[in-house]
Fold DNA replication and repair protein RecF.
Amino acid sequence: MIIEQLSLVDFRNYAAADVALVAGPNVFIGSNGQGKTNLAEAIGYLATLGSHRVSGDAPLVRRGADAAIVRARLAHGERHMLLEVQVNRQGSNKARVGGAPVKPAQLPRYAHVVLFAPEDLQIVRGDPSSRRRFIDQLLTQRIPRMAGVLGDYDRVLRQRNALLKSARARGIRGEGLKTLDVWDEKLVGLGAAVIDARSELTEELAAPMADAYAAIAGADHAPELGWALSVRGADPEDGADEGTVDAGDTAELFRAALAARRSAELDRGLTLVGPHRDDLVLHVRGLPVKGYASHGESWSVALSLRLASAELLRADSPLGDPIVILDDVFAELDVQRRARLAELVGGYEQVIVTAAVEPDVPEALRAHVVRVEAGTILGIEPADER
């Protein structure tokens, strides 16, 4: 799968932009703050319905505008498709596929993108929510129906938390909590599905992640990943990473954990058990990456997670290869890591790179250069014209 044409209207610093892309490597070159990353961000939005830089949609809309439009013409073999999303500053967003209105949540079915950016260091060094977000985005790309499960879980969680807060304020205990039992069952059903899907995905990520790490770092530091699960006694959000409960049926463990923590939940007015409290635990050399890994190791772990994601999407997607985006990555890498990364991504159908300085990008990836300045596409330079 490749993007042949990308068009923007009132997106970030672009009043309007229209750029043609090609199969293979494409490079956006521009000084910091000129808008090259905004192009990558727009492509990523089609696949994830979110930005890798901000949590909300409002910053994506150009100042003074009410909405932004991202439009992309995709090609998969002989099949061509036009995707469009309207990002509204207020109210619900709108989307079209082939000119027909669809729910925005359907767009990730048609666009698979793996984007790596400096912000991805938060996957390694940030709080547990960063790692949950990474896994959940990949999960919904591979299994689109999981977007609905995750959304329903969040809705039930909010309603259950509201009930806990109300019970705490009114001093309700015992028989007065029958309504909470109903929400517990809804939470367990949805939460167990999320936990099991995350665990299965993590198992599938392990081997390609280890391979990618060795290829990038040039060393085998035995990278590992697994889950610290609140239903098994861990609570990373409260600083307790090690669970002590034996393995068993996820729903039963979840149900038992809720019962055991109910008193504490009523005291705090907060749901203390469930996938919203879990953490993806990363190790290299037998030590937790967070707090122990060097800067180079942290970069290699974060990058290997993205490359492993691309490999999984490539293996089971009817759309072909995902589009691989490397946003301001090469400036952070030494010469050897640059060359290794270029070799790893060179086999994908389409690779999009952003860089402030062209020499930072290995020559093998400089086949199609797009120069960007102040929200304007200055020109495109195929390799044979440079």
Remarks:
- The CA atoms of residues 164 and 209 lie 40 Å apart.
- The chain has a mean pLDDT of 90.
